[in-house]
Amino acid sequence: MRAVIQRVLSASCEVNGEITGSIGRGLLVFLGIGKNDSESDIEYIADKTVNLRIFEDNEKKMNLSVRDIAGSLLVISQFTLYGDVRKGRRPSFDLAMIPDEAERLYERAVDIFRKTGIRTETGRFREMMKIYLVNDGPVTILLDSKRLF
Questions:
Q1: Is residue 32 one of the residues assigned to a domain?
Q2: Where are the alpha helices (DSSP H) in 52-133?
Q3: Is 80 a catalytic residue?
Q4: Based on the structure, what is the number of domains in the chain?
Q5: Is residue 106 within 8 Å of residue 112, measured between CB atoms?
Q6: Which residues pair with 3 in a beta bridge?
Q7: Residue of 20, 80, 116, 120 with catalytic role
C-alpha cells in the first residue's frame, strides 16, 4: 500500500459537482492499493499517517501529529500510485489491485482511520475526482507499507 500525504490548511474533493469530502487543517492522503496488500498494510499506513509528527510546535519544529493538532483527514483512492513508468512512457498498472478488491480494502482503510477518532472525509472510489487543496509548507511525505521507500 502506498500513500502520498500532504499537510494542508484545507482540502476538498468534488465528484460531478458534489463535494464528497472537505477538511480544514490536517492531512490529504492519496491512497494506492497494491495487488498483494492486506489488512496489515492498512494498519501500517493508518498508524504511520495519524502519528506522523509533521506539524510545527511552538518552537517551529515538526513535532506534532494530526491528532495533536485536532486536525482532519481527507482520504482519496489513487491507483495511479502504482503506475510503473520504468519502461516506455505509458504507465503500467500491473501492480495495482483489481478494482473490486481494492475498493474493499480502501473502505476498510477509511474505517480504520475513522476508528482512530480523527475526523475522516473521503472521495468516491472509481470516480473522476477534482481535488482542491491549500498545501501547508509544502510538506509532502511518501509512505509504502512494504518499506520500499
A1: yes
A2: 99-115
A3: yes
A4: 1
A5: no
A6: 31, 143
A7: 80
Phi, psi dihedrals of residue 90, rounded to the nearest 5°: -100, 125
Strand-pair category, 18-23 with 2-15: antiparallel
CATH code: domain of residue 48: 3.50.80.10
149 occurs within a structural domain: no
60, part of any domain: yes
Whether the pTM exceeds 0.85: the reply is yes
Domain hosting 37: range is: 2-143
* Distance in angstroms (rounded) separating the CA atoms of residues 132 and 12: 5
Residue 6 lies inside a defined structural domain of this protein? yes
Ordered per-residue pLDDT tens for the chain, 149 residues: 999 999 999 999 999 999 999 999 999 999 999 999 999 999 999 999 999 999 999 999 999 999 999 999 999 999 999 999 999 999 999 999 999 999 999 999 999 999 999 999 999 999 999 999 999 999 999 999 999 88
Phi, psi for residue 134 in degrees, rounded to 5: -115, 105
The burial of 99, by beta-carbon neighbours within 10 Å (0-12 exposed, 13-18 middle, 19 or more buried), is given as middle
